[in-house]
Predict the structure.
Amino acid sequence: MSQYSEEIERRRTFAIISHPDAGKTTLTEKLLLFGGAIHVAGAVKSNKIKKTATSDWMEIEKQRGISVATSVMAFDYSDHKINILDTPGHQDFAEDTFRTLTAVDSVIIVIDIAKGVEAQTRKLMEVCRMRKTPVIVFVNKMDRDGKDPFDLLDEIEEELQIKVRPLSWPIDMGQRFRGVYNIFEQKLNLYTPSKQYVTENVEFKDITSPDLEAYIDPTQAAKLREDIELIEGVYPEFDVNTYLDGDIAPVFFGSALNNFGVKELLDCFIRIAPSPRPIQAVERVVDPNEDNFTGFIFKIHANMDPNHRSCIAFVKICSGRFERNANYKHVRFGKVMRFSSPTAFMAQKKEVVDEAFAGDIVGLPDTGNFKIGDTLTSGEDLHFKGLPSFSPEMFKYIENADPMKAKQLNKGIEQLMDEGVAQLFTNQYNGRKIIGTVGQLQFEVIQYRLLHEYAAHCKWEPISLYKACWIESDNQQALENFKKRKAQYMALDREGRDVYLADSGYVLMMAQQDFPDIKFHFTSEF
Ligand code: G4P
């Protein structure tokens, strides 16, 4: 325990994730309404570039501006300090989302009742599983017709590979949707389709009581009794520890658009979701309640104004208290830094703060000192891990299109890579630089930003690659042999680690077979 424990215990730092269009933005907005952080619906601009997969660059610029404002949304609710970390909806920015997930203590997954589990949700859940992040599922759009709720639960268990436990249960759906029975609180929440009003709550401990028919029609009452009986028979009693361990996901049903079931979700969330949790650093486990401040950079956001090449580095505070103007150690540089205008994000407004606690996110204005994964401490040499790069999916050679601006180009590339926009590999055979991304959009982002922020012109040249694998071996000789045999395909990443660039799945498979002493990793952290 520390002098800050009370502050730290009341924090809930989480992200809402979903496949685009499932209702993440709408749900976020309703949560902010409950927190009094906004007062009218429609105030949250969605941070998504989702309508088309192809890029309309100006649209992306606009979105980038919005996404700074909505990067972290903090508000107080019922004695708790809630920090919602926003994640980009567009799949080309999946890497950003992965990194954001390293800074949260829990996650709410939104699933569309009609669409069920979709591709992006599956991918993001993999990251949660890897990190054992506690997950709550919100099944949205119950005002529309969709899948049978039991079938959907089976689908979630199968597709997301996590056990579920419904804590509320829908009474019909679509046009006939009447509300939910809140199993967690034993209340009947009745649905009034309205975007502005909170729903009616009736204490209802015993749904076998004939009083139920006073609220919902007899066929629906009979079905609800039957469903609840089945749930109690099939699913284990809810145990909060199984949720905290990441083994079981509680499930709620509702309609974010109609503000239905959202308050119930939030009320349960603040009760069961974890406060900041201990974090494993390379050297030791860091407990949030330690007095000394520690934190790491999980996101860097470039300034919208091309004339000021400054960024905001987002720090997740892992332990203790962060203070404005205090001396902190930038571990990678081994140098002391002070921050005179750290910002926090309350009620969608960015403001300078004097202090912040474990669980909070602060934004530090930066002019190129930070890169993703950097650690700040009160003095200790600590390194937080868990911010791996994943093998990119797309690769291109990057070339200088203006020989007079080579320096600018190199500087621009370095800084954009520090921000985590994409990954850079240098081919050891021909010395050429290769940029690897998750999606096509990043190439356009890079080209545009190099031009507008660094006055550098780049051009892309095709290269046909399948994956980048980080390789290692206990057998030095085998490693050397491999590197010699694959000389044309060997590259170094920015940390100087060996990376093998496989040009097809088949070639990779053969390499794995032919070189049993070599370990091939698909993430940079192993
Ligand atoms: P996202 O951030 O996950 O991408 O989803 P978003 O909240 O933007 O919601 C996607 C669409 O689904 C929006 O409609 C939104 O109004 C709708 N929606 C969200 N929750 C519900 C719900 O509970 N019921 C129903 N019926 N619809 C819901 P849109 O037409 O794409 O956008 P808009 O023009 O309404 O903003």
About this structure: Residues 47-55 have pLDDT under 50 and may be disordered. The longest strand covers residues 294-302. The CA atoms of residues 126 and 290 lie 30 Å apart.
